[in-house]
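SUBJECT: A protein chain and its fold
Encoding: whole-number codes for local backbone shapes
Chain under study, with its fold:
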Amino acid sequence: MSEFLGRDLGPVDVARITLHLATCAPCRAYLRTLRRTIQIAGRAGDVEMPEEMKRRLRAVLSAQTRGR
């Protein structure tokens, strides 16, 4: 499905998948979910991590590094 969404397939494969999607509700649901996942993941960099979370993450990573 990623190749389908990314337009990386040839016309025959696109036609086959399009035809299948017309009759397969589970695959249409999967495709909607995949599209939404890609959309959300694409915006992940737009969110700034709160300072408290950064502090806690640094503390955990530092403790793990010292434990080696």
User: Anything to note?
Assistant: The chain has four helices and no strands. The radius of gyration is 20 Å. Residues 2-66 form one domain. The chain has a mean pLDDT of 92.
